[in-house]
Amino acid sequence: MKYDFNTTEARAKTLDEQDSLAEYRSKFFIPKNKIYVDGNSLGLMPKLSETSLLRIIDEWKTIAIDGWLDAEKPWFFFSEDLGAQIAPIVGAKPDEVVATGTTTVNLHALVSSFYKPKEGCSKLLADELNFPTDIYALKSQVALKGYNPESELILTPSKDGRVLDEKDIVDLMTDDVALIVLPSVLYRSSQLLDIPHLTKEAHKRDINIGFDCSHSVGLVPHKFNEWDVDFAFWCSYKYLNGGPGAPAFLYVNKKHFNEYPGLAGWFGNNKETQFNMSLDFEPATSAGRWQISSPGIIGAAAIEGALAVTLEAGIENIREKSLKLTSYLIYLVDELLAKKPYNISIGTPRDPNRRGGHIALEREEFAFEICEALKSHDVVPDFRPKNIVRIAPIALYNTYQDVWNVVQILKRIIDEKEYKQFIK
Question: Looking at the whole model, is its pTM more than 0.90?
Answer without folding.
Answer: yes
